[in-house]
């Protein structure tokens, strides 16, 4: 059974934020901070594991394994990026079944051609709306937990078909049975407000730092009408900036012990070493 926390939060009508998780270090830090929902981001899980762009290169099998690892590591429920469903209708069915079995709480499926590209990069192409409608219907039918395992329908049509074209697609996806609507890469707060006002279903915002959309503070997003927002790039870009500074200081100044490092002893605890040490105390060989 899927974790009901996402459904419960949506039913409450209170806006909430969901951090993106790119690796298991970010997952355990999010555990410490205390989020009850996290987002398994395709772009950043691909970058962290393989050093590759989010361009449909990583396979369903590889991504499902990463999502399962995130579910195991995180204390929070996981919203998972399912790309295009990794192919046609049979692939969508297989992807939904696999992600649900892996323990995720919701799957996001988009209307790009397969293989897809990151929603804030050029050269994206979308499939006909009728094909995406069938994908959503298949995804909804494939899930076992009809109430708590949610299907998020994303359109990438804003750049190729304009705002009105993207809204026509979202309307079709809502009729097809999607639980949450996700118009990607809207270009202004005005567009965001118009999109949210047009539909009764929950609307998800993607706050992609450096992307096509503005990144207002959470209170503004709530006023606009979003149900929640994901922040897929936040931890990754923050970590990359901190790592670059530390490495530059090491190379140019020889500083190997800078101020502001995360506590090594605390990180050992977060990652589970205390359990290892307890095992050693109980079962390890003792000197006579």
TrEMBL record:
Pfam families xref list: PEP_mutase
Organism this protein belongs to: Blastomonas fulva
PANTHER family noted in UniProt: CARBOXYVINYL-CARBOXYPHOSPHONATE PHOSPHORYLMUTASE, CHLOROPLASTIC, PHOSPHOENOLPYRUVATE CARBOXYLASE
Classification via InterPro entries: ICL/PEPM, Pyrv/PenolPyrv_kinase-like_dom, Pyrv_kinase-like_dom_sf
Protein name per Swiss-Prot or TrEMBL: Carboxyvinyl-carboxyphosphonate phosphorylmutase
């Amino acid at each position: 059974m899927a974790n009901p926390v996402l459904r419960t939060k949506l039913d409450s009508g209170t806006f909430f934020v969901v951090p993106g998780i790119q690796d298991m270090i970010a997952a355990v830090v999010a555990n410490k901070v205390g989020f009850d929902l996290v987002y398994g981001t395709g772009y950043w899980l691909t970058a962290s594991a393989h050093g590759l762009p989010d361009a449909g290169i990583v396979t369903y099998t590889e991504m499902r394994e990463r999502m399962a690892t995130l579910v195991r590591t995180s204390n929070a429920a996981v919203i998972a990026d399912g790309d295009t469903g990794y192919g046609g209708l049979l692939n969508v069915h297989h992807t939904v079944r696999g992600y649900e079995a892996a323990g995720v709480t919701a799957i996001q499926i988009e209307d790009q051609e397969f293989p897809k590209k990151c929603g804030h990069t050029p050269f994206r192409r979308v499939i006909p709306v009728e094909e995406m409608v069938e994908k959503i219907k298949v995804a909804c039918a494939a899930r076992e937990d009809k109430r708590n395992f949610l299907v998020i329908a994303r359109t990438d049509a804003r750049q190729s078909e304009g705002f009105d074209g993207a809204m026509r697609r979202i309307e079709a996806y809502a009729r097809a049975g999607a639980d949450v609507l996700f118009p990607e890469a809207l270009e202004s707060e005005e567009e965001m407000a118009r999109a949210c006002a047009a539909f009764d279903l929950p609307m998800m915002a993607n706050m992609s730092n450096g992307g096509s959309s503005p990144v207002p503070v959470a209170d503004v997003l709530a006023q606009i009408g979003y149900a929640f927002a994901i922040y897929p790039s936040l931890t990754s870009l923050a970590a990359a900036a901190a790592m670059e500074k530390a490495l530059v200081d090491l190379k140019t100044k020889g500083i190997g012990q800078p101020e502001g490092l995360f506590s090594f002893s605390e990180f050992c605890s977060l990652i589970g070493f205390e359990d290892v040490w307890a095992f050693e105390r109980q079962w390890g060989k003792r000197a006579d």
